[in-house]
Design a protein that fits this description.
It is a single chain. Helix content is about 15%, strand content about 45%. It has helices at about 5-20, 240-255, 270-290, 315-325, and strands spanning about 25-35, 50-60, 65-85, 85-105, 110-125, 125-140, 145-160, 165-180, 215-225, 260-265, 300-305, 325-335. It contains 4 helices and 12 strands, in the order αβββββββββαβαβαβ. The longest helix is centred in the last third of the chain and has 21 residues, at about 270-290. The protein is an alpha+beta fold.
Length: about 325
């Protein structure tokens, strides 16, 4: 039997559950169509497709990587198999308990695509086996906590006693609930605009002595950059961000007395701890790029605020896109 691989995977899962979590927990349920291959050795009773259902849950340890545990009742099938010169008839439900690492990437602001591959313990009548399993699916965000899930999962050949090379497929539609997102406040802080009123010019009673020219104060307006500075679901800068950052680097290199504040922000999707980390990573990526263009490290102050300072609502895709940003500010300096 190949049960040892599944037991080892479950042990790793328990270790992961006891460590500090950097991402969200999710659960879900699904309904679908199950299919089996090589199930009809003779012309006897054979039904190789059936209604099925399942449940699943897991963790997103990072923005892309997670681990998922699932139970699938793939369907109740009638099949027949050649065994020692005779035909063995089976009428039973096929079930699978699976554990698989999961890789996720964003196709759009509301649609995620995921891949997973791992091990599954299969049970069909008196036949049991641990097999390879792989899945492909997508999730459409309905709100911050619920997502509609479409998935295809493949289970490799069962080999046990009288059953050989019995592979199965499960196509399902499900609903995923992510814990923690619904309770997060989405307060929006409005920035106060301060109107600068120029002081009235003082009338000169006497001619003033000509004085040496004072240094001129210059202020660069704050620029806010959205997620298009980065590749999807990561802190690696996208090539199209270089032109914008090059102009900022040019100012700082030409004026070494100037400084820059870089602050990363995220939307409220995911855990607070993970959002804090990804906001810091993105600010540091901008800092590193500016230093590569010749800006001195002591001119740069990089930090992250996670999801704590939204500028728009997190209830819409457009709002979440605005909140995924890096603020770059060059304070007043003299030259």
């Amino acid at each position: 039997m190949k049960r040892s691989s599944l037991l080892a995977a479950i042990t790793l899962t328990s270790i992961g559950f006891s460590s500090p979590l950097l991402a969200e927990t999710y659960v879900g349920a699904k309904l679908g169509l199950g299919l089996i291959d090589d199930a009809c050795a003779s012309s006897g009773p054979c039904d190789d497709d059936a209604f099925g259902f399942g449940a699943y849950g897991g963790y997103h340890f990072t923005e892309r990587w997670g681990l998922e545990l699932g139970f699938d009742s793939i369907g109740e099938f009638e099949s027949n198999h050649s065994y020692n010169g005779t035909t063995k008839y089976v009428d039973s439900r096929l079930t699978a308990l699976s554990l698989a690492p999961r890789y996720t990437f964003s196709a759009t602001d509301t649609i995620d695509v995921f891949l997973k591959a791992g091990a599954a313990y299969m049970d069909y009548s008196n036949a049991n086996d641990t097999v390879f399993t792989a899945g492909l699916g997508s999730e459409l965000a309905l709100n911050e906590s619920l997502a509609l899930r479409l998935e295809y999962q493949y289970f490799d050949d069962i080999d046990d006693s009288y059953i050989y090379d019995l592979s199965s497929h499960f196509i399902s539609l499900g609903l995923t609930y992510t814990f923690g997102n619904a309770s997060k406040a989405t307060s929006i802080e409005e920035e106060e605009e301060v109107e600068v009123v120029p002081e009235p010019e003082k009338q000169m009673a006497e001619p003033m002595e000509e004085k040496p020219m004072e240094p001129v104060a210059i202020k660069q307006e704050q620029s806010k950059s959205h997620q298009n500075l980065f590749k999807n679901n990561g802190s690696e800068l996208a090539p199209e961000s270089h032109a914008e950052l090059n102009s900022i680097a040019a100012i700082l290199v030409a004026h070494p007395q100037a400084s820059v504040n870089i602050v990363g922000h995220t939307d409220s999707s995911g855990s607070e701890a993970y959002n804090q980390k990804i906001s810091e990573d993105r600010a540091n990526s901008v800092s590193k790029y500016l230093q590569e263009q010749g800006v001195k490290e002591e001119q740069i102050n990089a930090s992250g605020e996670g999801e704590s300072n939204p500028i728009a609502t997190n209830k819409t895709a457009e709002g979440r896109s605005q909140n995924r940003r890096v603020d770059i500010d060059i304070p007043n300096f003299e030259y």
